[in-house]
Amino acid sequence: MSLPLHDRIALVTGGTRGAGRAIAVELGTAGATVYVTGRSTRGSRSPLDRPETIEDTAELVTKAGGHGIPVRCDHMVPSDVAELVRRIEQEQDGGLDVLVDDTWGGERWIEWKPIWEHDLDKGLSMVRNGLETHLITLHTVLPLLVRRGRGLVIELTDGDDMFNEHYRGSMFYDLVKVAITRLGKMLADELGPHGVTSVSLTPGFLRSEEMLEHFGVTEDRWREAIVKDKWFAISETPHYVGRAVAALAGDPEVGRWAGQSLSSGRLSKEYGFTDLDGSRPEASRFFADAYFGDKKDARVEDYR
Fold first, then answer.
1. 151: which strand partners?
2. Which residues, including other chains, have CB under 8 Å from residue 210's CB and lie 6 or more apart?
3. What is the pTM of this model?
4. What's the CA angle centered on 284, arms 283 and 289, to 5 degrees?
5. Which of 132, 29, 122, 34 lies closest to 78, judged by CA?
6. pLDDT, tens digit, for every residue of 243-295?
7. First and final CA of the chain: distance in angstroms?
8. What is the pLDDT of residues 279-288, one digit of tens each?
9. Most buried residue among 71, 81, 111, 276 by CB atoms closer than 10 A?
10. Which of helix, strand or coil describes residue 163?
């Protein structure tokens, strides 16, 4: 078995479930040592009260061929992140090759209303959980990569540059996701002189654990949910974006992507990976054409 990342150290924040979990597992499949952070442990659930835990994710990473290390960390608390960094420094001789910044947890606060009708506490909580956590993490973790003079930073967001032109319908949500996309660009300017590459990356319509539950289906029966939401036909598993991350991490010429806003569908064409079912969904292109564009009769089969 080829393990192209067997000597790489990665940190996946928000790795308890969804995209974060699958990214950690796919990095493990490629042989990486992966620190998995989050607030949900077997001993204590986060305020989201979901059953998935960081220990579960770490075990999946190890089972896949890597080495998973769970670390309970609240990325809203700078001292927690500082302690995480100290641990990585001690255990890995200061080494970190890949940072995947994937904290979020704001779904429960989204209201599709004008800002003056949106609950203010919920909106600000979304900003704190979805954006401030990224800033705290970057401020504290980036010195590990800068000192080494190499590495990769991936800012996980929702939507690529297309959403610079199209409003998502909730100002707080839109603000968080556009800001994270912008982080990938700004970091490229700050990190580039130090040999570190930064990008932003978005999955498509993600079939996360929570999304499958929302539609009342399992992964094996996901197509049944299309009758409830026709756009679900272009959806993808979290492993699709996980494979995108692993491909970027293993690319010796990854610097060519610096500052760009990327999607799992776009990178699948470049690197040749597929989703678990062998398909290659291009959700960003499909939504640009069929949802925002004038190709209202676009066939989803032509985009996967």
1. 196
2. 17, 18, 50, 107
3. 0.95
4. 95
5. 132
6. 999 999 999 999 999 999 999 999 999 999 999 999 999 999 999 899 888 89
7. 28
8. 999 999 999 8
9. 81
10. helix
